[in-house]
Design goal:
about 0% strand; 18 helices; about 425 residues; about 80% helix
Length: about 425
């Protein structure tokens, strides 16, 4: 990442002006925090299911339940989180969430050292970690426009998505090596340390954050209702929300909970090979981060979002074609297309929604969108685990990939809408 920045690929924009990473020290601190914590998250994202499969001998359904519990938090606390975050400063919420996740994920290597690990502990950690992640992400999405301003939103979101792209590329490779060298639970310890670094970097941001300018506080349920009413009353954001929920269901059903099972079981790959192939495939995510701003400007944000949804479905359809030997390339190419299109999708949908939403509703809008997307995911992973137990992993992935492709139909309206005027 540092080399990309020095080369000007990250720190400057298409017009040649000095970018946020060079001109805004506080954004640089936020960006660094995200880079480190995202890397740790990708390490534990592979290390935890590998731990369950290889050392705790979990079943396909038990591995799918890890995804269910990790994403269930969005369904349970997503809407209240948005209302609470609109009442609070964002930075303290993010710091507290990071420190809490450090303690939770740090308990996994401690339990392993004491020979007290269990699938039950993993369930508790991923669920509570998911709850804290909801608060962190909702606060973070609300904080970015306050820190960089509306004029730099697309660039800011693209730079932050670059963190995820790089982490998705190198994280699985590092995770595979750490699992093979140190065992999976101790690889998760790297994730715990990453949250500590993130908390310290966010705490170091110097720009004062104004307290939300609301003198009277309506009931929490009324706050939640306002967020729901805004999202479903805004035609463009409603289309994006329905797409996110549908795509999240199928992505979770066929890929988030079952991909590691496919790689360990039918493909018989070692942890280091799983990490290496995952890293190669996610090079597409880096490409997506580098060109997201240009593509969104060239196509228009709405058309870019629709195109990325279609491309996501195409990439998903390639993954189940993977077999031992040369057909492993289907997994790498499909994963690269998925990474590229997911980054385009996230950058454009985030920018569209942020631009369309008034400041005082942004936390509740973000939480509502996360509730719909994250709420569909535990249902999807549960259904995927049950179906895969009955008909097999690969047929379930085919079904889910087709669902991802068809989800893009929700994006026809954003693709044909006029550009958004910021409120």
């Amino acid at each position: 990442m540092y080399q990309l920045w020095q080369a000007g690929l990250v720190g400057t924009t298409r017009t040649g002006k000095r970018g946020l990473l060079r001109t805004n020290a506080d954004f640089r601190r936020l960006w660094t925090a995200g880079a480190v914590s995202q890397l740790g998250t990708w390490i534990s994202g592979l290390a935890i299911p590998l731990f369950a499969l290889l050392e705790l001998h979990a079943t396909v359904l038990q591995v799918a339940l890890l995804t269910t519990l990790r994403t269930l938090s969005a369904l349970l606390v997503g809407l209240p989180a948005g209302a609470w975050c609109d009442r609070l400063r964002c930075r303290p919420v993010m710091v507290a969430a990071d420190l809490g996740r450090m303690v939770l994920f740090g308990s996994i290597p401690v339990a392993a050292a004491l020979h007290a690990s269990s699938i039950g502990q993993l369930y508790v950690v991923v669920f509570l970690g998911g709850v804290l992640t909801v608060f962190f992400d909702v606060s973070n999405q609300s904080y970015v426009p306050r820190l960089v301003g509306r004029a730099d939103l697309v660039e800011g979101n693209a730079r932050l998505q670059m963190n995820q792209s790089v982490a998705a590329t190198v994280g699985p490779t590092i995770a595979g090596l750490l699992v093979q060298w140190l065992t999976a639970p101790f690889a998760v310890g790297a994730d715990a340390l990453s949250y500590l670094v993130s908390a310290l970097r966010i705490r170091a941001i110097r720009s004062p954050e104004a307290k939300p300018a609301v003198t009277t506080r309506p009931a929490l349920l009324r706050d939640i209702k306002e967020g729901l009413t805004f999202v479903f009353g805004h035609s463009l954001i409603r289309s994006i929300a329905l797409y996110m929920a549908t795509e999240g269901f199928f992505q979770s059903a066929g890929f988030m909970g079952l991909l590691t099972v496919l790689l360990v079981g039918p493909l018989h790959l070692r942890p280091s090979a799983i990490g290496l192939l995952g890293g190669l495939g996610m090079l597409g995510a880096i490409a997506g981060s580098l060109v997201a701003e240009r593509v969104a400007e060239f196509l228009g944000k709405g058309r870019c979002l629709f195109a990325s949804g279609l491309a996501m479905g195409v990439g998903a359809l390639l993954v189940p074609l993977a077999e031992p030997g040369w057909r492993l390339g289907c997994y790498v190419v499909g994963d690269a297309i998925l990474g590229f299109s997911i980054i385009l999708s996230v950058v454009t949908e985030t920018s569209l929604c942020q631009l369309a939403c008034p400041d005082e509703l942004r936390g509740r809008m973000n939480a509502t969108l996360r509730f719909l997307y994250g709420g569909a995911m535990p249902l999807g992973s549960l259904v995927g685990g049950i179906v895969a137990s009955a008909i097999g992993v690969r047929p379930t992935m085919w079904f889910a990939a087709l669902g991802i492709l068809l989800s893009a139909l929700w994006l026809i309206r954003p693709a044909t809408s006029a550009p958004i005027e910021a409120p």
